[in-house]
Structure formats: structure tokens, C-alpha cells
Design brief:
911 residues; single chain; 6-hairpin_glycosidase_sf; globular; six-stranded antiparallel sheet; 6hp_glycosidase-like_sf; alpha+beta; Glucosidase; MGH1-like_GH
Amino acid sequence: MTQTNNLRFKNLRFNHLSSINHHLYNNMNEKERLSDVTWKKWGPYVSNREWGVVREDYSADGDAWNYTNHDIAEAKTYRWGEEGICGICDDLQKLVFSVGFWNKKDKMVKERFFGLSNGQGNHGEDVKEYFYYLDSTPTHSYMKMLYKYPQNAFPYEDLIKTNGERSKEEPEYELIDTGIFDKNEYFDIFIEYAKENQNDILVKLTIVNKSEKEVPLIILPTIWFRNTWNWGYDNYKPQMNAEDANSIKINHKDLEIKNIYANQSEKVLFCDNETNDERLYQSPNQSKYTKDGINDFIINRNSQSINPKDFGTKASFFIDVNFKPKETKTFEFRISDKDLKQPFQDFEEIFTSRQKEADEFYAEIQNGIKTDDEKLVQRQAFAGMLWNKMFYHYNVEKWLKGDPAEMPPPKSREKIRNYQWKHLNNDHIISMPDKWEYPWYATWDLAFHTISFSLIDPDFAKQQLKLFLFEWYMHPNGQLPAYEWNLSDVNPPVHAWAVFRVFKIDEYLKDKPDLEFLESAFQKLLMNFTWWVNKKDSNGNNIFEGGFLGLDNIGVFDRNTTLPNGEQLEQSDGTSWMAMFALNMMRIALELALYNNVYEEMAMKFFEHFLSIANSLDNMGEECFSLWDEEDEFFYDALASSDGDHMYLKLRTIVGLIPMFAVEVIDDEMIEKLPNFKKRMTWVLENKPELAALVSHWEVKGEDSKHLLSLLRGHRLKRLLHRMLNPDEFLSEFGVRALSKEYEKNPFAINLDGTDYAVKYTPAESDSGLFGGNSNWRGPIWFPINFLIIESLQRFFFYYSPDFLVEYPTGSGNYLNLDEIADALSKRLAKLFLKDENGNRPFNGQYPRFQTDPDFKDYILFYEYFHGDNGRGVGASHQTGWTGLIAKILMPRFSKKEIAESETEMPEDAK
């Protein structure tokens, strides 16, 4: 790129980013809301599933899926959280609002989304409903979603039975397969929220009868208090009572909300948020009107199950209506901190205003996105991220001990899980991977979530990253909690990467660096880095072993397993993740050193640590064994025997591509500003040339006097890309596969100590239940890995000239530079969601109706991962958080590159 073109490119990026900055933070309505955290007091913080989670499990054997299940959910009061359909609550979940429905044919009121437990599905747990997140502003001042509710009896038993009878080789049996939508006998239920102010929330239901028949529907807008009074800590019990058929008075000492109003209710039904012990456990009830009282009244016409005095801790408006064929009806409600004589007088005006502001907000965010389809996909991606915020409450010490007012849990529970985490006390709004499939945080997932959040609400992104570094999350030994099923599990250490990425995006958008955020995060990340070094480098050789590392079943066997003869698994990806971590920490320290020279020493520490890891990757043990196989020109895991011998596990997976992620580019200008760092760095490079020679020729300057820190020299990078960009191996039409397609016809096989192991390319669902059954790394396309591949290629491009060319795809005879390849891979990922030449969206897979029906085709689901050949969505379906990265990928090309590169690529006046 010529100097003139380079300057033009930089100015173009800077001008566009300045435009985003101006519009995003000078849209007065949204700017005021974003700068006032009280606007986030209420939001979509209600789980889609509270049953079957660890927090609610008080069993003797730790079988969380069966201790609470869907069948008992309507009658059991939860200890730690609440669930509902399209629910909202305050940020401490003291008061919850959700909507229930009954089509007069189901066996129960539809108060929660149905799905299979892990043991019921042939491919693991899976929600069996259709709902879509369509819109939300960052402050939740406006939100919209869609739920498709069948008019005939919901096929609960059919879904359980048929999925249970299917093998792992067969597809899941989905709700649409039951035929329940065949005659359009369902309702489209659009649920919208608009805030008049922080504590005045308008609710609109727009319900469409999609069938040709006249059909009934009972609508039950429901409000209740989370039960905080039964556990023996605080016996304060709030109360609500009916003013009339269209209003409920709310009385809670800690809440400003006073009323909820309905525009067209027949009556109000009351019960209490108390477990029906008699029904579930054949013991006396503490309350006469239990949690399932309203359901019992609706389904069984049992007038004894609701409180005739019209008060309680749970209440529903009762609306019984008939819909003519194709008829649409609208229903209005308002939750308010005010006593309103005419609560619906300004209803449409407020809704219209909030919708308009939401459109204006996203119009500026999406400035430069070319097509309406890209805008639609990105806006729904943002909506999914925002709707999947959840109130997450889990105090491990209390959970282990049990509550004073309850029976003590079985003694065996003390050692089943999480007993090493008694300090952990979580009580916050947290971004979830998927509020049905994964209604608990996963720390490495969340790191990717924050990248998408940073584009629309960088303060929330920073808050999420800081949260897991606080003392009531991070273990005293420095480990970050993984997820509630095993808080001690190990995920890739990407937190430091996310901290710096979000810091830079925030700085660019606000024209001001948040150094307090960066410095406080760095101090805690030091503890986390030390934990990794102490716990996952068993031999002290800078080679990292064991651990889940987010790649459940990518290898030959469970990578946490204890091998029979004391062998250890030397992981190229574990070591590479740590090299990446070291570079991330070095880069943060360099940034802080620009403001405080004390951090130059820390930058040097991580510079040397990175060099040591790079050295170890190529020189293990006395034989100087390298995880880079010169014969295949690929990185492999290796087995190290007790006597020091090594053997490659020559399985080509994305494990061998992860060394690309350890890459950083620093220019001379920054080095000159840090004389102590420069002096020490020069000494190391001069006195330890064996280290310097390993790291991509640090002494050789690239374009614009840049230096490259990487595990890969140019030759190795090209050889890795040769395989990665080969359609017969890793390159799919829709991104980079997790396993080489070579193993589809020729499965990898090996015999270890008399046991045969095999790995076959499986492009979609897992064919084994060994790793949970619903998560497969042996062939599909995963967004987080693809995103890091793209970013790494962009970073390499910033160092290498545009003349550094690689064949793309391998065997095509077509050569592109690394920036062009990164862009091409981004387009492949975007193809998963965008309409193709036939109007189809690949993620919709094998169902023609989803591709052609106007009532389905433009509603986007963001799946956990994708079929390695045809792009079909697989796994968790409702905005699995890291797939929300598509929102970042769809940003205009120059803006995306701007944010991806370091500050040293920007003009000085842009910093």
C-alpha cells in the first residue's frame, strides 16, 4: 500500500469512526439514558429456564436435571431465580413480570418454554419452542420479541418419546417436525416494552391468529415477587392486592413500583409464590394458595386454588378472548411507580417515541452498512445479546450449607461440586450464552460477548469484564470461575484480550481512554496469569497441559483424563493460549506505561515470559522436541511419557491453528516513548539471541517500522494457512471448520496401551454423549475461533506488506494478501445468515418453510455452532452469545479494521 493510499485509508477509517462517535453519543435521548445507569434498573433479566440448573439442585447425587424439571416447575418455588416467557424484572429480581397463555387444549398454562433435559434428547438438552428476539436498545427503553404459540395441544410427550428413541446418528426431532404448524394453527405473539421513565414500563401484546379458524385464547399477564422470605434470613413478605379488575396495587419496601394496570382485563387472580408441597412431596402446604394456584384454576376450574380476598405474592390479569380467522388484537399494560387515573392516555405516544428513538440509534450505528438484509441481521444480533442479560444469583456457601428454614441438604452434597468456591457470591445482571440452553455464565463466552456489547454500550461491556475479576467471583488463588456445573473447569484465557479490545473500542468511541478500567483489570489479571503458570504448567517448562479449554471433544480422548502410564498431554493450543495471554498482558502494560512508567517493568516481564513460552513450544525436554511437526508442517498435541519421550498425536484440528492467535505488532514510535522497556528489550535480544530468533524475526522491521511478536515466522504461517484454506480440510463455504474434512473418509485412528481411539469428521451434531452430547468440536464451524483467526490475520497484515500473498483457496491458483483473506473469511461467516441468490438463509437448514414463509424467513436465530458443510445451525439456538460476534463482523470494513488494530495505527490526534 503506498503512503498516500495508507493515509487515505487511515483517514477514511478515522472519519467514519468519528461519525459513529458523534451520532452514538450525541443522540440526546439515548445518550442521556446510556449515561444514567438507573435506566437499566428494569430489563429482560428473567431466565427462560430455572429448572434443571445447579443453583436449584439440592439432591444427594448432584443430578440437577432431575432434581428440578419441567413437570414440577409450575408448582415449585425457586431459591435463586425466576423464569418466564418474555419476562422482565428489576436488577435484583425482587419483582417479576411475564406473560402466560392457554389455548384451552394444553395440559397446562404456558408459563415457561418447554425443552428436553440432557438425558431426554438424543443430542442433549434443547428448547422445543419458536421465539425470536427482534429489537432492544441498550437501556431497554424499547424491546420487542416474538413467540409462536400453537393453538392445539402442545406435543410434550411426542417430543420426549421420539427424541428418546432416536440415535446419535439421527437428527433431533423438532417442534416443526410434529406437524403442529402445518395448517398455520398458531398465534404470532409480539411482546413489546417501552419505558416512559426508569420505573414506568409500558407493555404491548399484539396477537395474530394465523389460522383460518375462529379460536380462543386465555391471556395471563402475571406479576410476582421472587420468594425471599422462606429461607430463614429475612421474613419480610411483600404483598399485592386488586384495586379493581384492571389494576393491581404493589407494595414492596424496596421498590418504587406501585401499580400494574391492564386495559381490558376481566378479573385478577391471586395466589402465592410458594411451593405446592402437598402435590410434590405429599406434605402440608405452608400457603393455602400455592404457586400453581392460577394454573389449577385455569385448567381444572378449581376456585379453591386462588385467593378469594384478592391478595397474594403472585397475580395474573385474566383475559379470555376469541380470535376470528386471521384476526389481530392488541392488549396494553403498564407497570408504574405512579398512581395513574388514565394509564393508557399517552400509551401510543410513548411507544411511538421509543420506537423512533430506537430506529435513530441503530440508523447511526449502522451507518455505512450497505444492505437492508445486513442491517436486519445485525440489529437482531444486538437484540439477542441484549435480551440474554439475566439476573444471576448464586451464593455457594449458602447453597452448600442449606438455608436455616429448610431441611439441611444431604452430607454428600458437600463434595459433589463447587465446594472449593465458598467465597463465590454472585448477585448481578450478567450476559448469558443462551437463557434457556445455558442460563448460567460461561467466562470465556462472556469475553466474546463484550466485543459486540462494546459497539452499542461500552460501559456495560467494561462492567461485565470487571465483574469476574472482583473478589466475589475470582478465586483467591487467581482462577476465574468457569460455569456453575464446575466452577473449577478451565477455559481459554481470553479475558485479557477482551479487556484490551473493549478498552480500545471504548476509547475510540468516547475520545478518552478509561485508564482506571484498564489498570484495575490489569492488576487482577496478574493474579489470573500467575494461577495459570502455577497450576497448568506442571513441569515448569512453559508447556501447558490438561483442561477443558473450551474444546470439549476436539482431541483423541478427554483432555482432562488421567492416562494409565503417567503420560502427559502437551497441548499446542494450551501453550498458544498462554502465549497469547502473555502478549495481551504485555500490550496492556505498554499502554499503561505511556501514562505511568512503572508499568514498563511489567511490560518487560511479559515480553520475556512470551519469549520463554515460544522457546518451549520448539524445545521441549532434553531432545528439544517441538510441537511443530516439520514433516506435516502443522502444530500437533503430543504425549510425553514419564521417561521424557514424546509422540505426536497427528490429528489436524483447530488446535494446530491456535498458535496464530499469539501475535502483536509494536512500532518504533511506541518503543521510543518507553526508554526503560527499550533498554531491557535490547539487552534480552542481544544476550539471548536464541529467544529472539524464535519469535518471527523481531529485529526485522515491517511496514512503517513495525515489529512483530508472534509464535509464527512467515514460512510457518503460510504452511498453516495452506491447510486452513484448503476446502478439502478446514475451509468451508461458511468459515473454518474445527476438524479437517480429511477425516470424513479417512478417520484418524490410534492405539494407546491396547485401547483403540478414533476421530471422525462429524460436521454437525455430536455422535457421542461423552462430552455432554450437545457440543461438537469435530467438524462444525464455531464463531469464537473464526473471529480470532480473522483478527490474527488482520494483525499479521499490519506487519507484513500487501505483497505477502497466500493462495486462497488452496489449489485455486488465486493469491490474496492477509487482509483480503480475513475479509473473505468474514464474508463466509456472514453468509450463514444473509439471504443467498435463492432467498435462503443457510442457518435455517433443512426446513423449506423457514426459508420461504414470510412469517419465519426474516427471523434470525444465532446458533451455538454451524454445520461444517451446509451451514445449518446446530446446538443452542437463541443467541448463543459468541455468535453475536456477527454484529461486529457486519460493521463496515474500514470501521471494523479501525477497531481491530492497535492505537499505534491511528493518527496522533485520534488517540
